[in-house]
Each structure stands twice: as C-alpha cells, then as structure tokens.
C-alpha cells in the first residue's frame, strides 16, 4: 500500500476530469483515477471512490452522500428534533459501517462534534442514547484520534451509571475498543478513568451475553497492546499487571470461558486475552492453578475443527509455557500430542502452524525430558511438514527452525533422527529464502552437527567483510 496521501477533492477532480476531458463513463472514470493514483504510490484507503454528484446550476459543488447524510443529522441535532434524530442517526451509522473512507470523510467534516452532541442530547432517553452510542462507535472505527476528553468522560459515565444495562454496556465498550486500538494516549486516559474494573465487572455481571463477554475481553486485550507507532514506550505491561493484580482478570476470563464452551468466537477472544496477560511467571502459574491450563487442553481437544479457537489456544499455551514449571504441567496434561495433531490437522493454515511450532519450541526450551516427549509424539516431523507446506511464510520457517534447535541443543542424540527426516535441506532453504531466518537457521544447522557456511556481507569498503 502506498504511503502518499491526497485529499478527497483531488481525487474527485481527477474523476471529473476523466469524465469531461476524456468522455469516460462514471465507473470507468473512477477506475482510471484509482489506477492513476495507486501507480504513483498513493494510499487511497481513506478516499471515497465514487463519482461526486455534478455541480448545481449556480456552480456550487455537490457533496458525497455521506456528507449529505451528516448535514441532515447536524440539522436534527441543532434543532433538537427528537422525532427525526433516530432516523438520522440510523442512516449515518449505516453509511459509516460501509467503509472507512466514508467515515473518514465524515470525520474530516465535523462528524464527531455532531455525534457527540447527539449523545449529550439523548442523555435522558435510554433507547436514543443507545442508538447515539452505536453511531459514535461506528464513526470511531479506525479513527481513534477523533475522541476527545469530553467523549471519554461521556463513555465512562455511561458505563458506570448504566452497568446493569447489557446493551448500553456493550455499546460503550465498542466505543472504548475503537478508541484505544492503535492509540496509546486514549488507552492510558481510559485506564486512569477506571475502565479496567468496568470491563472485568461487565464480564462477571453479564456472563450470559456472548457478545458482551467477547467485546469486553477484546477491549481488555487492546489495553495491553503496544501498537501506536507514534509512541516509543507504552504502558502495555503495566496495564496487563493491573488487569491481573487489581481486577482479578485471570479468574474472570477463565470462569467466563467455562460458560461458552460451544461458542468459538467467545473462546478464541478469551484465549487471546489470556495470552496477553501471561506477562509474569506467577501469572502463568496462576492460570494453571485457576484451571486455565485444563481449559486450554480441553479446547484443543474439543474444538479442533475451529481454526480460530485452535490458533488462540496454541498462542495461550505458548504464552504460559514461559514459566519452566508450567512447561512440565503442560506436557503432563498431554498437550504435546494435541499440539502436534493441531499442526497436522491444519497443515494448510500458516498461523496455526506458526503457533503450534512456537508452543512446542517453548516446551522444549531448557527441558531435555520434554524434547523426548515431543520427538516421540511426532513434533519434529510435524514442524518439518509445516516448513514444506509454507516455504514463503517466514514466521512458520523461523518457529520451526527454533523448535528443531531447541530439540537438539541439549539432546544431541535426537540430531540423527531429525536429519533422517530431511531437516537439513529444509532449514538451508529457509535460511537462503528469508534473511530473518538466517540466525536461527544457522544455529539449528550447527546444533544438528551440519557444516554451516557463514553468510558474508560486503560492507562497501575495500578489504572489509562483515559476517
């Protein structure tokens, strides 16, 4: 995707020029404009790729439909027209949900202030407020910068005062999710404002609502992200600790998972959140003590046909295996066979292959006795099959190489059986194809006892080579 940006007006002018100067029909004019800008490296993800209505008789430029709808909503808000407001909110929210380009254009033309005013206007009407919050959520999706302090306080106030109302809680949490994704300052502001106990409390209070539990778990997980490239250091680790230590997050999530054993969407979200909270040795052990490990093993066994659950369960097992004592508990629970089965059963899924190899890699690290169990269970063979199946997936290749290296680094007797499976050419191919695999592939080959040619890089100076 390109990194250059253009204004909506620039794109609209190009489309209009194609129509008037080159006599293209509207659809062709749009396609040509898209091709023209993308060939120049322009990112059009925020551009409405449609023909703007022609200018009126007096020469006044017309607006795209999303802006016309916004104008109607703004009039209803300005006039406090409570009869028209529901219809206008519904129409605007529907268009915002269609694509990012629509809501981006609206956001650039004052939509946030209008929707926030609608929320404030609807404060005394529960159903209207619910609709206004749903509209705010739709607008914020992909545009977290729009939210200001007033909006944050409004969302937090609603979550506090209407915590018994599952629908209102869900609408508020959706706003939180969209506002905090890729926005570190909003995350920190919401945490300071007390969002964490509101999220964990909602999961406990409304544990029978699948969508609410899934959304609340997702919001908690986003609080542990470090995905805002504008901020060098975030508070992801601190937020994870607060969720666990101050808000009993591990128990809340594990108990919630027990109530939704047949819902793959909820289970995958809860597993993903658990993996983000496994940031300390004691937290990993707590997950085991609370029944989380038994739950993860059961999910792998019972949900093998649900790739989303399998992937996130593997990710969670990988995370809790960061604790050396937990490694033993995982192996004793029979998880290694299930991990190997998951890789083999979903061999065409690179993400499951990656997470499966990564989980086995963690279980093998510093644990020779676990290496024997993994080997006997077919773990090495499954990893090599994954490498064959996904030669272009650097993450799969890297995790498989690391697994092979961990298997043999303290158990040299496993080297020959693994080499007999054809490991050397596969690892050498990974090293040649992916620069990011060079170090781990070289280490794996070395520990397998293979001759390793060190890759030399020319530095540009006479007589100077860097290895």
Descriptors for this entry?
467 residues, mainly alpha, two-stranded antiparallel ribbon, 68% helix, disordered C terminus
Structure summary, number of beta strands: 2
**Order of strands, widest sheet:** 1-2
Percent range of helical residues = 55-70%
Order of secondary-structure elements: HHHHHHHHHHHHHHHHHHHHHHHHHHHEE
Distance between the termini: 33 Å
**Tally of individual helices:** 27
Low-pLDDT parts are 456-467
Major beta-sheet overview:
2 strands, antiparallel
Globally, the shape reads globular
- Our Rg estimate from Cα atoms comes to 27 Å
Question: Averaging pLDDT over every residue, what do you get?
Answer: 93
Strand composition percent: under 5%
Helix and strand content put the structural class at: mainly alpha
How would you describe the overall organization of this protein?
With 467 residues, the protein is mainly α. Helix content is 68%, strand content 1%. It has helices at 8-21, 26-39, 65-78, 85-98, 100-107, 111-121, 126-140, 149-161, 166-180, 184-192, 195-205, 210-222, 236-245, 249-258, 264-277, 281-289, 292-302, 307-320, 324-332, 335-345, 350-364, 368-376, 379-389, 394-409, 415-420, 423-433, 438-447; strands spanning 457-458, 465-466. A two-stranded antiparallel sheet has the order 1-2. The longest helix has 16 residues, at 394-409. It is globular. Mean pLDDT is 93; it is low at 456-467.
């Amino acid at each position: 995707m390109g990194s250059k940006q253009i204004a909506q007006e620039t794109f609209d002018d190009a489309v209009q020029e194609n129509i008037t100067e080159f006599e293209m029909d509207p659809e062709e004019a749009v396609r040509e404009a898209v091709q023209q800008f993308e060939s120049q490296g322009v990112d059009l993800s925020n551009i409405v790729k449609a023909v703007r209505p022609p200018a009126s008789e007096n020469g006044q430029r017309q607006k795209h439909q999303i802006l016309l709808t916004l104008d109607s909503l703004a009039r209803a808000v300005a006039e406090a027209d409570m009869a028209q407001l529901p219809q206008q909110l519904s129409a605007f929210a529907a268009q915002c949900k269609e694509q990012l380009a629509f809501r981006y254009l609206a956001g650039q033309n004052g939509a946030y202030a209008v929707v926030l005013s609608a929320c404030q206007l609807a404060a005394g009407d529960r159903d209207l407020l619910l609709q206004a919050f749903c509209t705010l959520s739709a607008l914020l999706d992909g545009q977290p910068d729009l939210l200001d302090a007033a909006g944050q306080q409004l969302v937090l106030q609603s979550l506090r005062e209407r915590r018994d109302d599952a629908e209102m809680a869900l609408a508020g949490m959706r706003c939180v999710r969209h506002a905090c994704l890729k926005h570190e300052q909003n995350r920190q502001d919401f945490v300071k404002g007390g969002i964490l106990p509101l999220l964990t409390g909602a999961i406990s209070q409304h544990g029978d609502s699948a969508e609410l539990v899934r959304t609340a778990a997702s919001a908690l997980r986003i609080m542990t992200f470090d995905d805002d490239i504008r901020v060098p250091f975030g508070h992801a680790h601190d937020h994870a600790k607060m969720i666990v230590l101050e808000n009993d997050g591990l128990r809340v999530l594990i108990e919630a998972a027990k109530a939704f054993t047949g819902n793959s969407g909820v289970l995958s979200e809860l597993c993903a959140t658990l993996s983000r909270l496994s940031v300390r040795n004691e937290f990993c052990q707590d997950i085991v003590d609370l029944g989380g490990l038994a739950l993860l093993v059961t999910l792998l066994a019972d949900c093998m046909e649900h790739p989303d659950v399998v992937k996130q369960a593997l990710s969670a097992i990988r995370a809790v295996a960061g604790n050396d004592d937990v490694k033993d508990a995982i192996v004793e629970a029979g998880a290694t066979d299930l991990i190997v089965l998951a890789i083999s059963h979903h061999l065409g899924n690179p993400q499951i292959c990656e997470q499966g190899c990564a989980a086995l890699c963690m279980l093998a690290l510093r644990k020779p006795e676990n290496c024997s169990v993994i080997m006997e269970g077919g773990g090495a063979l499954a990893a090599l099959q994954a490498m064959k199946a996904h030669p272009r997936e650097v993450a799969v290749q890297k995790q498989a190489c690391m697994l092979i290296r961990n298997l043999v680094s303290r158990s040299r007797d496993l080297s020959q059986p693994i080499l007999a499976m054809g490991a050397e050419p596969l690892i050498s191919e990974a090293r040649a194809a992916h620069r990011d695999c060079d170090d781990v592939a070289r280490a794996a080959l070395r520990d397998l006892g293979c001759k390793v040619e060190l890759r030399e890089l020319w530095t540009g100076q006479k007589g100077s080579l860097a290895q």
